[in-house]
Amino acid sequence: MIPAATAPPSASPPPFTPRRGLGARAGDLILSDYFVLYLSIAYVAALAPFLPTLTAPGNIVNVMSNMWPLLVVAIGQTFVLAIAGIDLSQGSVVALTSVVGAMLITTAADPAVLAKAPIWGLVLTEGGGPFAGLMGGVGLAVMAMLLVAALVGLLNGTTVAVLNMPPFMVTLVGLITISAFAIWLTQSENIARLPESFIKLGKGDIVSVHIGAKDSPQIPRREVYSFVTYAMVIAVGVAVAAHVLLNRTIFGRWVLAIGMNRRTAEISGVPVRRVIIAVYVISAMCAAVGAILYSARLEAGRPTLGGGTFLLDVIGAAVIGGTSLFGGKAKIIWTFFGVLFFVLLSNTLNLMNLSSFQVDMVKGAVILGAALLDVLRTRLMQERRR
Amino acid sequence: MNLLTKFAALAVVAGGASLGGQAQAATICFAFQDLETEFWVAGHKAITTTLTEAGHQVIERNANEDANRQLEQVRDCVAQGVDGIIIIPQDGDSATTIVREAQDADVPIAVFNRPPTDLSRGIVVVADNATIAEAATDFVVEQALENATEDRQLNALIIVGDLGDPNAVGRRDGFRAAIAKHEDRFNVIEVASNWDAGTALANLEAAVTANPQIDLMFTSSDFLFPTIRSVLEPRGMWKTAGEEGHIPLAGLDGDATACQLIKDGYVSATGVQDLYFEAESALTAILAAIEAGDTAPNEVIEDPGFALTQDNLAEREMDMWGCVLLADGFLNR
Amino acid sequence: MTDILTLEGLTKDWFGVPAVSDLTLRVRQGACLGLIGQNGAGKSTLMNMIGGIVAPTAGRMLWRGQPYSPASAADAAAAGIAFIHQELNLFSNLSVAENLYIDGFPRRLGLIDWRRVHARTREILARLSLDVDPRLSVGNLSPGERQLVEIAKALHNEAQLLIFDEPTTSLTARETERLFDTIAALRAEGRTIVYISHILGDVRRLSDDIAVLRDGRLVDEGPVDAFPVTRMIRSMIGRDLGGLYPPRTAAPRPRPVLEVRGVTQPGVVEDVSLTLHEGEVLGLFGLMGSGRSELARILFGLDPHQGGQILLDGAPLPAGPRGRIRAGMAFVTENRRDEGLMMEASIADNLSLVSLREFGRRPVGLIDPQALSARTEAARTELAVKAGDIAVQPVKALSGGNQQKVVIGKWQMSAPRLFILDEPTRGVDVGAKYEIYALIDRLAAAGGAVLMISSELEELTGTADRILVMNRGEIVGGLDRAAFSDERILSMAFREDAA
Fold this sequence. Notes:
The complex is a heterotrimer. By secondary structure, chain A is mainly α. Chain A has 16 helices and two strands. Chain A has helices at about 5, 20-30, 35-45, 55-80, 90-105, 110-115, 135-160, 165-185, 195-205, 230-250, 250-260, 260-265, 270-300, 310-320, 330-350, 355-385, and strands at about 205-210, 225-230. Chain A starts with a helix and ends with a helix. Mean pLDDT of chain A is about 85; it is low at about 1-20. Chain B has twelve helices and twelve strands. The longest helix of chain B has 19 residues, at about 1-20. Chain B is elongated, with a radius of gyration of 22 Å. By secondary structure, chain B is α/β, with parallel strands linked by helices. In chain B, strands 2-1-3-4-5-11 form a six-stranded parallel beta sheet, with helices on both faces. Chain B has two domains: about 25-120, 3-Layer(aba) Sandwich (Rossmann fold), CATH 3.40.50.2300; about 130-275 and about 310-320 and about 320-330, 3-Layer(aba) Sandwich (Rossmann fold). In chain C, a hairpin with a 2-residue loop joins strand 16 and strand 17. Chains in contact: A-B, A-C. Chains A and B meet through helix 4, helix 6, helix 13 and helix 15 of A and helix 1, strand 2, helix 3 and helix 4 of B. Chain C: GO terms for molecular function: ATP binding; ATP hydrolysis activity. Chain C: InterPro entries: AAA+_ATPase (IPR003593), ABC_carbohydrate_import_ATPase (IPR050107), ABC_transporter-like_ATP-bd (IPR003439), ABC_transporter-like_CS (IPR017871), P-loop_NTPase (IPR027417). Chain C: Pfam families: ABC_tran. Chain C: This is Monosaccharide ABC transporter ATP-binding protein, CUT2 family (TC 3.A.1.2.-).
């Protein structure tokens, strides 16, 4: 009955334009969803001749394994940025949930180290945590980590949505108090001796590849590379779910609508407060999943995880991908490519033997560049509308 | 564009160097956690200069106190195909993980000064805290006994570190062993510091007020000497040897401040971790493993250390890293 | 008596559109001139030219017989012209004395001579019978007292001409009386007054002469004795309607949709009752601040109300906009940019925002993209939105009229029973206005009820079946289409019997 119903406009081919200038094509490229992926490929192609290690299988495995935890955390941040918020507390949630998970499942704890911690005797004994050796104990610990994160997210979200406090302030307070709380819990000590089934989540292989021996080091090496790991499966799973949630569901549309114009969303009947709270819960839970991956590969619960420049990495990766700090513009695939580019950048700077200070300076410059790119994109979009 | 060419140029240098190494010259990855205190700065310098002077290629990685970053950096080193790794770890737990990671990738690894929780894997160089502390305490115990005119009980005060740290425990044990030799003569006063100058200040003030007569004092780390001074000086108890009211003071670490104070006569002795010995042995062990094709060398090397005292200052001064730094003008920088 | 200010052929064009054209007007020394006109008649442009804010395109001004062309507000103040605005221009964080002396403090030995400042301020305040401490912060004063401080500032600057622009909007009846006494006292000192107000009774009471502006021209002037309120209103409107509005296609039905009974919110609306029927377009007219937009927000659940009842189809409504949307309400606010649209988002996303829930599949609310794009495309066709690919083109790129169609369209997609339209044609050009009026007629003909709020009386008389008039938070009267009379409606809205 409606002609458009049979052929939705999105499915129709774009109008044929006979000749397009170089500038227009460059504009297309910059506006493309895949721009940062192309940028990453170009970056690798440009540096590969000078850094032979860059494309070595061992290095590719490293790049991937560094990507997964960061990706999960950055996905959570993407949701918050999409509603024009910011979640500075993610790093501290990583620390807190790392400690919470580890104290529940550690198989043994040293009283000389941990006897002064407030959790000693209460949760932790010489025989380890309450779930040590329990069937499905790791699963329970993971649930507990997610639950703790969800509570933090609930608190952040409620404060932002109901009390209308600026998210920067709320989550900055969260960052300080939660990380202090995590450090207090163990008195700054790490909780090691985690069960194998947990450690596997961070570094266990599912598919590994054997490549012939290599001759560059003086001692020949085993050349077994893990390509499909549990961490990869978890991170990609989270990414796909997040993509569907943000792009294909009512909730996702609401998230973007709030980011674009909160007043309009409110008047149009979007349950603004509930969506904001849910977004902060998602962000914190993503941080908890990141905590699983980080703690598992370090084989310890650490109250100092997620400190330092971690937040720079998370927000930087999301922004490089193209997610706007002003809200309303976000895609999970952008964040995926942003994380890829960011990890590649760190990796190559390391391979160039630059110091960590130089690495951070370059990272900062790249994030600034990404912000400028956002401005350029916006301007291009506006020009194209005319 | 300009930046990119600079990177490329740097990369050529790095890549060329690592490929061009001869059979004897090894590429060593040196991953340290941070360069925050004098001790680590000196240790870092000792290792890098020794390696480069021997013609080896050093790849440095600074983790900025982030254990996760250190793990990633060590993995990058492995991927780069280094011959061996030396790390100053962030802490004992991450050290254990990183050692296993490296050995599983067939790369020999040595851990410098901060021991992993699991001592059974990797080359581990540690200082023997108890022995060093005992040597330093012995010296001040002798001085205190000499000064004591009557037969009264003497007060021996120790500032202990964070007892969660095995180093702090070892140092206290060494102090106790030295006192035990004259058990009948000494009262022991323990002052907690938790490795924190503020805590040390408060507790020490309380202790000195309660016990105005202190006959000897031992601090578990030299970094607390300025704190001790700020407590003793207003009470007329900060004196050089020979002056009326001098208290025999001993410490441990061997930093530049301690060296200066020994020279000035305020401090009688300090236990020294022989940084140069530790660097030397870590390097020898890792290079030997590379030579032998041993991918998982496991060995614990103990640094017995020594005590630098007013008596042996002349001969052994330059064995103490703090004095070397002092001679370089470290405190004036 | 001489003229203190003379305007000769004064003209101001905004990009070729005249806001004030060829205006010649004399302000007599020591007299009070009442200046009236509808919104957009050119009063503010005229004041801005006198005040040095904008420069005239043509014509000239004479101040005490000398050519006067102020380049800034400071020039006007230096000449001796002061403005007392409806939005006060005081620093609420500074003291009364500091506000008076903000342009320059007297100094003694390089320091501010506070003793002189306070003494002089006290003296000026005494002349205005305002008994407040000069050191008191202006933020602690009542609106009436602040107004007097503004006048004190004018006196401090030795102003000879004081221009009052809607000075009584935020004053109580008592404060208004006091202001009028002060104005009388100022005139007794020989100062000249220009008084601008919508409250025609006040204008008559205070003024010696009346001048009426319409469409940027001086259409009528004369001494107050020859200027009854009826003449004022006739001169202000004076235009034919017709041809601008589409005919109504269906008559209202008897069944009530919205029933409002005694809704009260102190200081906002007072005992408002009205009934709106199926197929009816009810116009709600009132001046700025009469409570019309506030009433709309209360009806939609955005703002609270203390007393009274609101029923939709005979049933009480849940609190908050979400429940009311579900019950069948739609609200097009007066602020399209901030409250109606997501400017950066596509037309399709804007259209689908309200009715998104209908396209979700359980359990996670996965959207059916085919069904959604079919519906938005259908809505676009029906609204005749002039745009390219609605899934791509952002609403920001549309003209004001097409933007407004999108706002109405997004509500239409949820098939509501009641539309509340607040200033639906603001910022919309004449052609698109017609389309929007036609759209309003279609909404009503399809059985919906429309509550249309506007400050343009013409468009209400052109489209509504019935008009209610609000004044100071109350509904003061209503007229059926057959009895529409601009004069009656305006006289209710201006309520010249007040004061």
